[in-house]
């Protein structure tokens, strides 16, 4: 059992990503961004004018992140409508389309949009490379963090895969090769902190999800192996100085969710079978289960980012209660392997969570203040 967080244990880490006080990445779109997107859709401004407005707003929110004390800064996904589709449809062989209905969440549904596989998957170029380069250019002494969906998201969200690929193995092979190229391209653009966002794992956390998996033709254990191998193969050739983290999410749309269940059923795979440098994990309410699955963490070089502060609602959690929860987690994982963040971003889609911008910044300040008290 590790020492209590109140013992004054000296912080021996946290100087490289993920940081002691970190965040998942997306931020509430500003009113100016929302207005500019409507103007672009109406034909009142062109793409260059929209991008100039995005640049200005990204500079503003990056400066705000620096001001409140975050070490990792993001562009807040200000150029995106979706956390996953915008990137996936930029891959060769993938196109966006409008299905009959949107994605279902608890008591709500997203607008209708999706991606489909129309040809062999590959990566030759991507508009988000320029997005990262802009972020990198304004990061200064801070670390520019960029987020992209895990390759598993095309596996679970891509339509028409079987019309292009005869086997799962063939599809996964091309997908991982495309991701290898993408990761190298972001690295060459200067990226040293890359996060993969992944809701696919949440299917494995509940019996309801497992039933859906079986109906799709897979056994849950088979699918968890595919998910792990896909990620590991995609990041296998990354340079030593590129830190790659994985954010496992149960859905985040307008303060709602899509998945439930703890990590226990696939904990050994997640904590010991993934070759990532860190895991951003949801622990903000009872849907995520207890910290007990963390007992399966055997790697001393794996950082666990505890998402015990919610991005779904504006009320600040009691600081002492959060410190107590960190202390509980440290019974399973050494305190020096733990970090703190909100459980998810504040706007996984452009609609954003039901929270104000001021409340968003106060949440992030809360993360920073608590982390400074814990890791002295």
Form type: globular
Our measurement of the CA-to-CA distance between the termini, rounded to an integer number of angstroms, reads 19 Å
Quaternary state reads single chain
Total domain count: 1
Mean pLDDT over all positions:
95
Determine the fraction of residues in helical runs and give it as a percent range. Answer: 25-40%
The fraction of residues assigned to DSSP E strands is: 15-25%
CATH architecture: Alpha-Beta Barrel
| Helix-and-strand structural type | alpha/beta
CATH topology description: TIM Barrel
Q: How do the SSEs run, as a string of H and E? A: HHEHEEEEHEHEHHEHHEHEEHEH
By DSSP, the count of extended strands is 12
Q: Unreliable segments (pLDDT under 50, ≥5 consecutive)?
A: 1-13
Query: What is the level 1 CATH name?
Result: Alpha Beta
Instruction: Report Rg.
Output: 20 Å
Sequence of strands across the biggest β-sheet: 1-6-8-9-10-11-12
How many H/I helical runs? 12
Described by strand count, sense and barrel closure, the largest sheet is:
7 strands, parallel
Domain Cobalamin-independent methionine synthase MetE C-terminal/archaeal: 23-351
GO molecular function: 5-methyltetrahydropteroyltriglutamate-homocysteine S-methyltransferase activity
Organism: Halobacillus shinanisalinarum
EC number: 2.1.1.14
């Amino acid at each position: 059992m590790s020492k209590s967080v109140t013992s004054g244990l000296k912080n021996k880490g946290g100087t490289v990503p993920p940081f002691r006080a970190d965040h998942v990445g997306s931020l509430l779109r500003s009113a100016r961004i929302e207005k500019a997107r409507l103007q672009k859709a109406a034909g009142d401004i062109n793409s260059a004018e929209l991008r100039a407005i995005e640049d200005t707003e990204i500079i503003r929110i990056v400066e705000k992140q620096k001001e409140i004390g975050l070490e990792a800064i993001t562009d807040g996904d200000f150029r995106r409508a979706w956390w996953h589709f915008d990137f996936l449809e930029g891959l060769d062989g993938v196109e966006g389309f409008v299905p009959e209905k949107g994605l279902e969440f608890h008591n709500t549904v997203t607008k209708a949009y999706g991606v489909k596989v129309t040809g062999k998957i590959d990566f030759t170029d991507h508009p988000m490379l320029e997005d990262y380069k802009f972020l990198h250019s304004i990061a200064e002494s801070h670390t520019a963090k960029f987020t992209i969906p895990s390759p598993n998201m095309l596996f679970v969200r891509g339509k028409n895969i079987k019309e292009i690929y005869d086997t799962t193995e063939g599809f996964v092979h091309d997908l991982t090769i495309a991701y290898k190229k993408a990761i190298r391209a972001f690295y060459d653009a200067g990226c040293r902190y890359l996060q993969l966002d992944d809701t696919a794992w949440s299917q494995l956390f509940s019996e309801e999800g497992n039933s859906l998996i079986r109906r799709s033709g897979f056994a849950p254990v088979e699918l968890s192996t595919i998910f792990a191998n896909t990620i590991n193969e995609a990041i296998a050739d990354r340079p030593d100085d590129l830190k790659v983290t994985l954010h496992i999410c149960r859905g985040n749309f307008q303060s709602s969710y899509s998945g439930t269940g703890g990590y226990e059923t696939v904990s050994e795979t997640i904590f010991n079978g993934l070759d990532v440098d860190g895991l951003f994990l949801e622990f903000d309410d009872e849907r995520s289960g207890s910290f007990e699955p963390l007992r399966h963490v055997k790697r001393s070089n794996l950082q666990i980012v505890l998402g015990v502060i919610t991005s779904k609602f504006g009320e600040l959690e009691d600081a002492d209660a959060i410190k107590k929860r960190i202390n509980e987690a440290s019974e399973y994982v050494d305190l020096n392997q733990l970090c703190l963040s909100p459980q998810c971003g504040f706007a996984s889609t452009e609609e954003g969570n039901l929270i104000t911008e001021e409340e968003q910044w106060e949440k992030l300040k809360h993360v920073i203040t608590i982390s400074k008290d814990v890791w002295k």
